[in-house]
Design a protein that fits this description.
50% helix, 4 strands, 103 residues, alpha+beta
Amino acid sequence: MTETRRSRVEQDHAERGARGAHRAAFVCTHILQTLRDGRPRGFLWSRDEDGAVNAYCALCDAELRRAGAEWDEAVTAFADVKLISEDEAASAAMINGVVDLRR
């Protein structure tokens, strides 16, 4: 995780903690769209070294494969990763048939 992203995570945890919200999750913009329209788009995920959920959809997976499995500038721009709560990520996961984000 880059220092800039780590700083965003730490700041987000502090801000959300003050409001009583849950852990952060990083998802592609297409997963965010799934939360808006309820349409499954795939949900490939893992946890980063800080324990945050990182998830992307089937379209982003195809772009990632085209790029040789490297998160290059084009793939990163296509994914347009957004910061949401882990609870929101869990809702998107369920829409896509992923039942449990505990790993």
